[in-house]
Amino acid sequence: MELNREKVLHVADLAKLSLTEDEIKKYQEQLTNILGEIDKINKVEIDTDEIMISPSNNKNVFSEDEVYSSNDPKSILNNAKKTNGDYIEVIGVINE
């Protein structure tokens, strides 16, 4: 498929490009080559209607969840500089 000058200018207009005559010729050739490669892909005959999700057969492997106890709240509060009941006091960071 040969791309004519007007189509190249149309694509350039869509891309908001201003092209010189040399650039128009250059892009005409390059876009024609790209369309030729796309045409080759479109001509490939496919023997099956099967949809391929992934080219590999890898399966996800999940590990079992393990329940364990986290740190003891009392030991955490003992390591804090300031506490207020069951809470750790920190310096205020909100400017009013």
Defining key terms:
96 residues, mainly alpha, 3 helices, 2 strands, two-stranded antiparallel ribbon
Structural summary, described in words:
- The chain is mostly helical and 96 residues long.
- It has a domain at 5-42.
- 41% of the residues lie in helices and 4% in strands.
- The chain has helices at 5-14, 21-42, 73-79; strands spanning 83-84, 87-88.
- Strand 1 (83-84) and strand 2 form a beta hairpin.
- Helix 1 (5-14) packs across helix 2 (21-42).
The Cα radius of gyration reads: 33 Å
Spatial shape: elongated
The percentage of residues in β strands lies in: under 5%
Order of helices and strands: HHHEE
Structure classification = mainly alpha
Note the gap between the termini.
68 Å
Portion of residues in helices? Answer: 40-55%
Strand order of the largest sheet: 1-2
Average pLDDT metric: 87
Number of strands: 2
**pLDDT < 50 stretches:** none
Describe the secondary-structure layout.
Layout (H helix, E strand, L loop, with lengths): L4 H10 L6 H22 L30 H7 L3 E2 L2 E2 L8
Antiparallel strand pairs: 1-2
Kindly summarize this structure in a few lines.
With 96 residues, the chain is mainly alpha-helical.
